[in-house]
Amino acid sequence: MCGIAGWVDFGRDLTRERPTLQAMTDTLANRGVDDQGLWVRGDVALGHTRTAVIDPAGGAQPLTVEEDGRPVAVIVYNGEVYNFKQLRTELQARGQRFRTRSDTEVVLRSYLEWGPDCAKRLEGIFAFAVWDLRREELVLVRDRLGVKPLFYTRLPEGILFGSEPKALLANPLVRPVVAVEGLQELFATAKKPGQSVFRDMRALLPGHTLTVGRGGVVDRTYWTLEARPHTDDLDGTITKVRSLLEDIVLRELEADVPLCTALSGGVDSSAITAIAAKWRRELDGERVRTFVTTFDDYARNFQPDDVRFSPDEPYAAEVARHLGSDHVKIMLNTQDLMDPQTRLAVLLAQDMPTTLGDMDTSNYLTSRQIKTHSTVALAGEVADEIFGGYNWMYNPDLLDADVFPWVANETRQQGSPTGQGRRLFDQGLMRKLDMNHYYADHYRQALAEAPHQDGEDAKERRMRSVGYVTLTRWLPMLLDRDDRLSMAHGLELRVPYADHRLVEYMYNTPWSFKTFDGREKSILRAAVRDLVPPSVLERTKSPWPVTQDPAYTKMLHDELSALVADPSSPALPFLDTDAVRHTLDHPSSIAHEWVSRMHIEMALQFNTWLRHYNVELAI
């Protein structure tokens, strides 16, 4: 996994701008901890930071291909293409000659063979840029689900791009301006495709290519979800899912560096781990390495909340024993989560504040610890989205709320009746953002996009719509978070459930099949029933853990008190002082009311973000 950055300006000689390109590239140093490279020629400048996974010795970037001793194309690439060996064989048969073993060269030569349409042949997670010297065009490509990030800013005669917003902000042509639309995106838990928090940036849409030439910019779709008839019966569907998972995990075990799995003890990660363990035994006789995260005394003193019904660690340990994995328990304590430098690093990794607080911090620390052992980790993300794992998918009131069901769920929780993370902000600001109208309008747009099959009954149609908006408006938030917090340490996080073949298959699988036994994720449970312990199969979904130590909540209150006492706090004009005072005067007596403390987390992070990014609010 890597970081990419670049600049094309047909009206400027960029050979004089090498220091600026270097600054852009340096912001992505954590994404690429093994190497760094620049390529500058005329009106084009490309930068790359590399975490080596495939062909560590031969895959340096930017990578150039020559014909007759002259360069014809150069690439900067972030990601993994899991079918690169098959493509390499096909390309060799078509006359392409390779000088490395890397998947990067396979991607570049695929472009030379098929142009931007090569994206349709690539299977994996990727974001890359190719400068075609023959056509004087830049081609940007992003994977089908948007697992790997790619941001850009249009220029009068070109474009700037980078893996993260910070790379663009390192260029003086881009200012950290945030308008109303950006603040709506910041506070929303339903993300608009392509929308960035910063006014002058866009995210390349998943499944899209962007071609930039002297004649202008062309945005093309190469993949989107489609509604197709589901021809398998229930048993055939279960068999198909198992077959796909076996093949997907096998391909994603490809690496020239140490690899592991992130094991939570839920059915999603346990299934991936069990299949990975099976393949490792068969192929090389080795044990799979597994990691689980917990907190001091968390399992012993665990108290259920509205979505967490059991601690992860005991279940993960049971799966590890069952599979005989090389199991590592990552133990975090409250001081780890409260460390101000760590919390700042989490904010800087994401280039924006979030409400998730210690969930993000523990995720960040987990990736840091895993990286000391492994460079690649397989995770269970995306299973809930495709198999139907969220509780709000089963509540008729939430499904009929005429808004994203998870948003309806937020406002019905005692800790966030006004929306997640917004309670402490000025009501005038909230009226200007008008999140209710924003969500309603956005929801209608999303529903209008959802592809459907002919002849669907009302329930199947509704649940297919829910599946579509979940994949396109909810999932991007999780994928972005996972990418930033893992790549902050140069850890490559692979997500087998995001394989587009499985996503397409499950999108077209009837909801009645997905819930055939009256439970969530029925098909996944049935597909891996022989691989994981019964206790895990029967376990109710429990999200990433949060600390339940009262000391953490007290720390948040202390920091909020300090914020409002400091007249130089940049967030102060945007907070509701009465709401802040009420929060400070009535601290929660229940340490694990994590939904309530999200409001404090957001206010604190918003303050830090304004200060560190010198944000210009154009509202």
Description:
The chain folds into two domains: 2-221, Aminohydrolase, N-terminal nucleophile (Ntn) domain (Glutamine Phosphoribosylpyrophosphate, subunit 1, domain 1); 234-538, HUPs (Rossmann fold), CATH 3.40.50.620. The radius of gyration is 24 Å and the shape is globular. Helix 6 (234-252) packs across helix 7 (267-284) and helix 12 packs across helix 18 (458-487). The protein contains 25 helices and 19 strands. Strand 4 and strand 5 (70-81) form a beta hairpin. The protein is of the alpha/beta class and 619 residues long. The strands form four sheets. The protein has a six-stranded antiparallel beta sheet. A six-stranded antiparallel beta sheet has the order 4-5-6-7-12-13, with helices on one face.
Task: Summarize the entry for a quick read.
The protein has 619 residues and is an alpha/beta fold.
Uncertain segments are: none
Strand order across the biggest sheet?
2-3-1-9-8-11
Distance between the termini: 37 Å
Number of strands: 19
What count of helical segments does DSSP give?
A: 25
* Domain count: 2
CATH T-level topology of the largest domain? Rossmann fold
Sheet with the most strands, sense and barrel status: 6 strands, antiparallel
Helical content band: 40-55%
Secondary-structure-derived class: alpha/beta
